[in-house]
Design brief:
The structure holds 3 protein chains of 3 kinds. By secondary structure, chain A is α/β, with parallel strands linked by helices. Chain A contains 24 helices and 14 strands. Chain A has a 6-stranded mixed beta sheet with strand order 10-11-12-7-13-14, sandwiched between helices. A 4-stranded antiparallel beta sheet of chain A has the order 6-5-8-9, covered by helices on one side. In chain A, strands 1-2 form a two-stranded antiparallel sheet. The radius of gyration of chain A is 29 Å and the shape is elongated. By secondary structure, chain B is of the alpha/beta class. Chain C is mainly α. In chain C, helix 1 packs across helix 6 and helix 1 runs antiparallel to helix 8. A two-stranded antiparallel ribbon of chain C has the order 1-4. A two-stranded antiparallel sheet of chain C has the order 2-3. The chains are: A alpha/beta, B alpha/beta, C mainly alpha.
């Protein structure tokens, strides 16, 4: 497992490169075939438009697909890039006629198209960076409504500015245009840009950043618990995608020979989004498929909308349905496609199927070998976790009052207590998901209150979740690899175990290529354990690892947790209700009730403690009410 | 009154409840006890129509109500006081109760409101206060009163003592006792097993999604192994 | 000072229409967690019905109620045809579904009617003004503000005093628990769409009077104003939606008068930029509705 940008060169660079090339050949080949058969100028023009659309849609896919955030703003970025390109690239002799009063002496500049495209792209990326900071500040989450509205606002801002700043943009009607002769006259730049876009999109998705972004898309909270800062990865995805979209927009302006505000607005947003979702927004192959399918569908609709078109001899000329097939059939097709796919197939035709991944599976079937188990305890530096006097209040509810534990890196500490005792809240505090109202906790003397969750897990405080938070659309292997990627970057001082070894040790080797959402309950729990172990944690916090398991399974889990902790040399803090499990696994136990530690000691001591028995079976009336009157259930 | 047979509920591929059998007779108070994660809330949620059952049947007064929508079940006379109370915090106490009585005719609703005001003096005091300002004990009373507003034939409660201080736990069990004495039929999920067994006619013990023991409150209370069965036994 | 007061009244007039639209958006967001990008289509459809009615020689007194009824019916039809099929889906799906509805409706008018703008007469009194001291107040603004206030009061009464309103508020707060109380999910969602359509209908009458025309993409502007105002106020808060609408109207009018001449045409752009900034610093909008993250 490498530490760099790409975990595995063959899988993450070689095959994606080949896959991108194959997609390029198929799309361009189909286009060339079509224009050769028809042999008309309009067919050639259609293919040019399709190829440029493909660049833009692939660019949008890099962001929307990997982060799960719906963006209208990419067409806004396209508008910015398109205008920047036009303003810089149009020869000054023509600009002096169109926009003589342009600010900054822009009317006099002569950069030539390729330098202009470069500068326009850089400028747009700079704008995207600022917008990206805004998205980050809004705490953008997958599917987040606020983030989508920010992108929508961006689209409208650019449109309004383009319409109302005629000194720079030529305004609503005239726009900016290249005079005849100065326009893009060959396909080569488009081919290069499309190939480059496809390669970038596939490489990004396979890169460290792409994988971490996808993890955050699947489960934002779990991603943060795995040491991922989603906002950083979303920014990376945004910048990569805006580069591609900008180049596509510049080429479109150059190929069209002109730009108007309406070129990059709602209609284009609709078109590109439909292309994206029809194939499948989570895959580059899907984006390309969507572009091809929708281009064909629109062309068919357009031809049906014309008079006198024939399909296989069936003439529609002066047919009774003629009134339907007006020129606007295209828009109807697009709107209905969007609606239909959202209702019946929201993940598109092929979901996240990817050509090169498929090829890799096909060629690599059975070639990977199960790693040998290594259950020796790893030597790791001695660590101590201390938490004391932790108070947590939610509104009027006191969930924890003065709770505290100590644990060392070579023991397994159990926390028990009835429902609502504050156990999960306690783990939430130590892993940064809840900020304590008072109290402190530290790792090897370093005070950690107020440190964000993703930092805490990088420091080695790693958790699992009571209600299972796996990256559901990803395979078992991808789930564990994501944690291993983070560990490679932030936990390199610890002995790192390979993902495959941990998968094998968790008993998941035969399921390694299945998606997490297809696993049964016990395997899901074991995967969560393996994923957490791959973080090379100093302490592993397990929140009810046996909940929902059968008795036999939970007994087996004792060994699995022990082995896993030994393998990575981690201390364990485990919450469970099952006293058999807890006493079987723990070296020491803390009992919590009403947000306080009511007993601590060896399993036997705690089990025999009358206060613990009372807390569990609930002779509550016999106890003296101390501390809070209310308690937030966890 | 209520018959549950072979009920299985899955979350995805996870069976949270397996093959549960349970019955509640008219006028009975039946407890459902067991550790967290045992499937108690899942069982209640499936009966109440919040979760779709994967297999099995639920019969209420002879009608098959398996998988029916909660709004239909309530009209059939089956009310649930949900876990964590789930009162409407932005609505006043009175409005919460009115929502509870949304299915009864307007004239009866006024009558029921008066009845609740009399039965729960604490609520009457805070009649026009937003429910978010109630303390935990008051909120639990409101949640129960709200469920009673629909005149249920069977009242189900999910963890009514959860997160309450000992004194308020007493109050909840006093309330259950008084409902029992008034002849109500109750099915109560409780973590607080020993208190539940004091007030229940019968109880079922759930563990790992299965019913592992059943009997009268007396029988289960005198069972020496209950503590073990409850918090970790069964496979010893 | 006089100019400021005049702008204030103008801003309130504009903001009132936005408030009605935003309230409709917020009501639906409350029960379904759907940010309705198709809200403006209610006005597009109403606009064409108004255009057709004037073709029949009807007067505004007849057309206004017809516009409102059209808006309600359209809202219910859209729910039935599209939104009822994606209940409980992910935010991404819900957002794109409403975006799709927007396009299908405008495309349908493009196809079956025409791409060109259809104009209709505006009532004679719209441009009239009257004076209070040195203030020249538009009759139209006055009517809008008065009707909006009446509508908001009526809506408040419906939400606060009727069982339907209570059911709607309960469902918006906690849909599952509301169903446990016997509230029918179908009725409450349809009720929300009807109420939303009704509010949009009233806003639509004013919008159409002011515009005096409609075209296939006429819905974008009111949709945007309604959605943005609801967001400014804080989604999920009905009071916030009204406040957000008024704030948006005031911001537009005041900015237009304060910005120097050269940039005044960019008012909309400046407003959008301000809104984007607001979301950056207060992503929950002006009125925060707390959502605890359950771990």
């Amino acid at each position: 497992m490498g530490n760099g940008l790409f975990p595995d060169l063959r899988r993450d660079v070689g095959f994606p490169f080949g896959g991108a090339l194959a997609l390029f050949i198929v799309l361009v080949g189909a286009g060339l075939l079509y224009q050769t058969i028809l042999g008309t100028g309009s067919a050639e023009r259609l293919v040019t438009v399709m190829l440029i659309d493909a660049i833009v849609v692939v660019g949008i896919q890099i962001y929307v697909g990997n982060t799960g955030i719906l963006s209208f703003g990419h067409i806004g970025f396209a508008a910015i890039a398109g205008y920047a390109f036009a303003v810089l690239a149009i020869p000054s002799s023509q600009k002096l006629q169109q926009i003589p009063d342009a600010p900054l002496g822009l009317a006099d500049t002569d950069l030539g198209p390729w330098l202009a495209l470069l500068i326009a792209t850089l400028f747009t990326v700079a704008v995207a960076f600022i917008v990206g900071v805004g998205l980050a500040r809004s705490g953008a989450e997958s599917g987040g409504v606020a983030a989508t509205v920010i992108t929508l606002a961006l689209l409208f801002v650019t449109h309004e500015v383009a319409r109302n700043w005629p000194e720079l943009t030529g305004g609503d009607r005239a726009g900016l245009s290249f005079q005849v002769g100065g326009r893009l006259d060959g396909r080569l730049p488009i081919y290069l840009a499309l190939l480059g876009s496809l390669i970038l999109a596939r490489l990004y998705a396979q890169s460290r950043s792409g994988r971490l972004a996808v993890a955050a898309r699947e489960d934002n909270l779990a991603a943060r618990a795995m040491g991922i800062n989603p906002l950083v990865q979303q920014m990376a995805a945004l910048l990569a995608s805006v580069v591609v979209v900008s180049v596509g927009a510049g080429l479109r302006v150059y190929a069209d020979g002109s730009i108007l505000p309406s070129d990059f607005f709602f209609d284009y947003a609709l078109l590109t989004l439909v292309m994206l979702i029809v194939g499948g927004r989570n895959s580059v192959t899907g984006a390309v498929l969507g572009v091809a399918v929708m281009t064909a569908a629109r062309e068919l609709a357009r031809r049906l909308g014309q008079d006198g078109f024939e399909i296989f001899g069936l003439g529609l000329d002066s047919a009774p349905l003629d009134w339907i097939f007006r020129e606007n059939l295209q828009t109807v097709v697009l709107g209905l496609s969007m609606l239909g796919f959202m209702i019946w197939r929201p993940l598109g035709l092929i979901d996240d199927w990817e050509l090169d991944k498929w090829a890799l599976r096909l060629l690599g079937r059975g070639t990977d070998t199960r790693p040998e188990g290594d259950l020796e305890r790893q030597d790791t530096p001695a660590t101590t976790l201390e938490a004391a006097d932790i108070d947590v209040r939610f509104g009027g509810f006191q969930a924890l009052s003065g709770a505290g534990i100590t644990a060392t890196g070579d023991e397994i500490v159990g926390i028990i207590g009835p429902n609502g005792a504050g156990k999960t809240t306690f783990v939430n505090v130590i892993t940064g998901m809840v900020t304590p109202t008072a109290g402190r906790f530290s790792l090897d003397g370093r005070d950690l209150v107020g440190v964000p969750a993703f930092e805490l897990s990088r420091l080695g405080l790693v958790r699992t979740f009571q209600n299972l938070r796996l990256f559901n659309a990803l395979t078992v292997r991808e789930n564990v690899e994501i944690a291993a990627l983070v560990a490679a970057a932030h936990r390199a001082d610890r002995p790192l175990r390979s993902s495959d070894a941990l998968i094998a040790q968790a008993g998941l080797w035969d399921h390694r290529d299945r998606r997490a959402r297809e696993l049964d309950y016990g395997n899901s729990r074991r995967l969560e354990l393996a994923r957490a172990a791959a973080m090379a944690p100093a302490f592993l916090f397990l929140d009810e690892p046996t909940s929902g398991m059968s008795d036999t399974e939970s007994v087996a889990m004792i060994e699995q947790v022990r082995n896993m902790a030994d393998t990575v040399g981690a201390g364990v803090v485990v919450i469970d209700h099952d006293l058999n499990f807890i006493t079987g696994i723990s070296d020491r136990i803390y009992a919590l009730d009403q947000g306080q530690v009511i007993a601590a000691g060896t399993p036997a001591e705690v089990q025999a403690n009358p206060a613990v028995q009372a807390a569990y079976l609930g002779s509550a009336a016999d106890r003296v009410a101390v501390g809070p009157t209310d308690n937030e259930p966890d | 009154m209520l018959e549950v047979a072979g009920l299985t509920t899955r979350y995805g591929e996870i069976s949270a409840l397996r093959d549960a059998e349970l019955s509640v007779g008219s006028g009975e108070v039946v407890g459902l006890i067991g550790p967290n994660g045992a499937g108690k809330t899942t069982l209640l949620g499936t009966i109440a129509g919040l979760l779709p059952p994967a297999a099995g049947t639920v019969t209420f007064n002879g009608d098959d109500i398996t998988g029916a929508a909660p709004e239909r079940l309530l009209r059939a006379g089956l009310a649930l006081v949900p876990e964590h109370r789930r009162i409407f915090v932005d609505l006043t106490v009175e409005e919460n109760l009115k929502v509870g009585g949304v299915t009864v005719p307007a004239a009866d609703r006024a009558e029921l409101l008066a009845e609740m005001a009399e039965r729960f003096p604490v609520l009457k005091e805070k009649w026009t206060t937003a429910a978010g300002y109630l303390s935990g004990g008051e909120a639990q009373q409101l949640a129960i009163a709200r469920a009673l507003m629909s005149r249920p034939r069977l009242l189900m409660m999910d963890e009514p003592s959860l997160g309450l201080a000992p004194l308020l736990v007493d109050m909840v069990f006093d309330l259950i006792t008084s409902l029992r004495d008034a002849g109500r039929t109750l099915l109560v999920v409780e973590q607080n097993a020993s208190r539940m067994l004091e007030v229940a006619d019968r109880a079922y013990v759930l563990r790992s999604g299965e019913v592992v023991a059943t009997g009268t409150g007396e029988e289960l209370r005198s069972d020496e192994d209950l503590f073990a069965t409850f918090v970790g036994g069964g496979h010893q | 000072m006089t100019e400021f007061l005049q702008n204030l009244i103008d801003g309130f007039g504009r903001g009132s229409i936005y408030a009605l639209l935003a309230l409709g958006v917020a009501v639906i967001f409350g029960v379904m967690h759907l940010l309705n990008f198709a809200h403006g289509e209610l006005i597009t459809v109403s606009g064409y019905v108004a255009f057709w009615s004037f073709g029949q020689g009807w007067s505004w007194w007849l057309v206004a109620p017809l516009v409102i009824v059209t808006s309600i019916v359209t809202s219910l039809v859209i729910e039935r045809v599209a939104f009822s099929r994606v209940r409980g889906a992910s935010d991404f799906t819900l957002l794109l579904t409403s975006f799709g509805v927007h396009f299908v409706v405008s495309a349908a008018f493009l196809m079956f009617v025409s791409a060109s703008v259809r104009t209709f007469p505006r009532p004679g009194w719209v441009a009239n003004t009257y004076s209070i001291g040195s203030l020249n107040v538009e009759v139209f603004d006055t009517v809008v503000i008065v009707v909006t206030i009446i509508t908001l009061i009526a809506t408040t009464v419906i939400l606060q005093r009727t069982m339907f309103g209570l059911a709607l508020r309960a469902a918006a707060a906690d849909f599952d628990t509301a169903r446990l109380m016997g509230i029918r999910s179908d009725s409450v969602i349809r009720g929300a769409f009807a109420l939303s359509g009704h509010l949009a209908g009233i806003a639509g009458v004013f919008w159409l009077i002011r515009a005096g025309s409609t075209d296939p993409s006429a819905g974008i502007d009111p949709m945007l104003k309604g959605v943005l105002a609801a967001l400014i106020g804080g989604l999920g808060s009905l009071r916030g939606a009204v406040l957000g609408g008024i704030a948006l109207g005031l911001a537009e009018v005041l900015l237009r008068s304060w910005l120097p001449d050269g940039v005044a045409s960019l008012t909309e752009g400046v407003v959008f930029a301000m809104i984007a900034l607001l979301f950056i610093f207060r992503p929950q909008g002006l009125i925060t509705v707390a959502h605890a993250e359950r771990v």
